[in-house]
Amino acid sequence: MAGEAIIVLDDRARLSAFSRASEKLFGWSAAEVVGQPFAMLIAGEEGMNRQRLDQLGSGSHGLVGRHKAGHSFALTLDLAARENPAGRHFIAALRTWPARPVDPERLARLEYENTHLARLAVVEAMGPALAHELSQPLTAVALYLQAAEAMLGPQDAAGAMVGKARREAERAGRIIRALRRFVENRLPESVPVVLDPLVDEAIDLALLGRNPRPAIARDRAESELTVMADPVLVQQIIVNVVRNAMDAVEGLAEARLWIATRRVDGRVHLSIRDSGPGFPAAVMAELFAPLQTSKPGGLGLGLALSRSIAEQLGGSISVDPGGGGQGATVSVVLPLARQTSPEAVQRSA
Amino acid sequence: MPQADEIFVVDDDAAVREALTVLLTMEGFDVTCFADGNALVTAVRSHVPACVILDVNIPGPSGLDVLKRLKADACPAAVFAMSGQANIPMAVDAIRNGAIDFFEKPFDAGRIVGCVREAIADAGRHPRVTGHLASHFPGMELLTPRERQVLEQIAGGSSNKEAGRALGISPRTVEVHRARIMEKIGARNAANLVRIVLTEH
To answer: What number is the ipTM of this complex?
Structure first.
């Protein structure tokens, strides 16, 4: 069978992640089993709980698996217990017999991904505080530069440079404000948002830390496009997709993205095309599946999350894989905000 | 030469205080700084400036408390609130308590000078917000009866959840109504919306 089945168990031995290979191995889909006790997958282990997992500890164990169809099969379980800010949990790699030797690299990678997740949680918790701490000095910098600019006057060469520095400081300020809204923990809202400025801001966010930066050709819609959505969620999609595209062209002689917005019927199309090699067919098949990634250190959540957000907003995401000299194109479609009418309001009440 | 207009600045960050002082002094204002709200309230009681620029996140009494006290004293100065941790309820609260506008830090330096000048030029002509919906405001006739009810809740300081409970609809529906109301009235943001509808026009 292809690959190991990877599952993640929470501190009460319930399934919190169930990979594609696990679905094949047990016959259940992830949606059916996530949140269910691990014991349902193992024959003769009704008491498979947290204590039992602790007792098993790390390392390889022989068990009997139970398929959805009812039959049993021999299993080898490699277990690793981990702590992160969310609590204790377990990562299990499952194989049918005859067992392959444990791949230490694979477990090391799982561990790496796990610590990566934990670090992300810390960054998320720190984000708003960090944005606040940076906003004070940035405010002062922009004010000083504004004063120096006025003091030197527009004719002065140094004054012109100070003006440029002031505009850069203000740009940094806009990024901080966007970042604060992006990481802030709050309920989603639905407001009319104009798409193009939001896309530009998301591109700035996606460019953070990129060096060298790809060339970006930006094509804006002729008229102002307004969507009814949570701006932060829309931005999350765009940041994800643009970062993916940037990854695809990284290190290429021609590193270029084309990002366009246009209106098609009653909807908004945002397309992100890259000059990369396109998606191989094997990757395409599992492109939107969670926990599938072709990137070292990637989590395989970006596109899966983006799609679920887009669908929540009444839109969709589609991918043209490109290939044969063509880069990939990801298209995000969102509904336009409807003209406000009293009837529409009555219906929603 | 006429007396320079006075501005009081309240911020616990020394660099922000000094930078605002340098800039506003260059722009011809007479600037005095305070590191906390108590010092400001005391100073304002003996001497009213043309304008106050007040950080909401300050030690001691919060910026909102300071706004309330200035309002209770019927202080005629134009007050701007600012914050590095701005959110919608905070902005709405600041406006309800008499702030003219709300700056999210880090703000564009050029904008604040323009706003301060405008507010001082308009001195005495910017009516204070009241505690209730104005009898008329722009876009009022475009609102449905339901939207008007939602607006009354929001302007009264209710969260989406509280407004939803009061009106027997979901917080999500309140959200949708709020978005449509902002669209109809032409408000830039929630703070701006509250300022518009609580001011007599």
So the answer is: 0.72
